[in-house]
Amino acid sequence: SQVPSDLSPAEVAILLEGKVSNRAISAILIDLAKRNYINIINKDGEFYFGKRKNIDLGTIENSPDLKDYDKILLSKIFTSNELSSNKEDILFRVSHHVFYRKVAQVYVRIYQAATDKGYFSKDPVKSYQKHRLFGLTLFFIAFIGLIVGLFLSIEPKFFLIFWLMMLFTATLIIKMAPHLPQRSAQGKAELIKWLEFKNYLSKSEPIDSEQARSSLFEKYLPYAVALGCEIEWSKRFLGKPFTVPNWYISTESVVVLEDFANQLFPIIGFVSRALAVSREPII
């Protein structure tokens, strides 16, 4: 029932999935809000990210409380002179490729943080690039061999099956490349601890009222998102006393936890998917 180590939510997400997904981005956003770096605002059905008054993008590089990927993501959500950023701002930047390289940097830094802690046997980014390059090379060799065989080989053309099988194998390697990075023994042991914590978050047993009043829901929410069990974690608090976190501002009624979850999760999901799609394809 306790966080097993000092991993950030984003690092927990990559430890679980073996790659960075939009869940890691969602977890970062909620964690930044929980730590009072951003406000999440729901105004008449439109969402905004508000910059907290004490955040200066010119000086966050020196902040010891922020990871490298936190800083990069903050610098992409806001420009230096913006106090807020909305859906249209984010979609504009994504559609004009403003995010591509910077979001890729967020992914690389999360990978690097997990690798530096010894949770992967090799650099996941380099491993992915190597396997993908091998798959692409194999694919083009097989494609050229198939074309040459179709036009120049003698009948019957049964041996063309060889090139077709090579094309299939190459495609499979390319598709599987993002899933190939292997956890080290240390990484597997750490993952077991976090899966035990996920089991606690996902229990069907309701949280007692005293714990519900202690901000426990908010405390573990970024980790629940990273572990893919935010719905189960929310259900444990249904019918319990609920106070809206000070980082969430809404013009719509938020009386119970269901109201909060139904408003927040779609916002975070939309933004994280938009950012995940915008990353460079090598990551």
How many helices? 12
- Quaternary state of this entry equals single chain
- How large is the share of residues in beta strands? 5-15%
Order of helices and strands: HHEEHEHHHHHHHHEH
Widest β-sheet, arrangement of strands: 3-2-1-4
For the record, give the distance between the C-alpha atoms at the N and C termini, rounded to a whole number.
34 Å
Describe this structure in words.
- It is built from twelve helices and four strands.
- The chain is elongated.
- A hairpin with a 2-residue loop joins β1 and β2.
- 58% of the residues lie in helices and 6% in strands.
- The longest helix has 29 residues.
- A four-stranded mixed sheet has the order 3-2-1-4.
- With 283 residues, it is an alpha+beta fold.
- The relative contact order is 0.18.
List the helices and strands and how they pair.
Layout: H1 9-17, H2 22-34, E1 38-43, E2 46-51, H3 68-77, E3 84-86, H4 87-95, H5 100-116, H6 124-152, H7 160-176, H8 185-201, H9 209-212, H10 216-226, H11 230-235, E4 248-250, H12 257-278
Parallel strand pairs: 1-4
Antiparallel strand pairs: 1-2, 2-3
List keywords for this structure.
four-stranded mixed β-sheet; alpha+beta; 12 helices; 283 residues
Quick description:
The protein has 283 residues and is an alpha+beta fold. Helix content is 58%, strand content 6%.
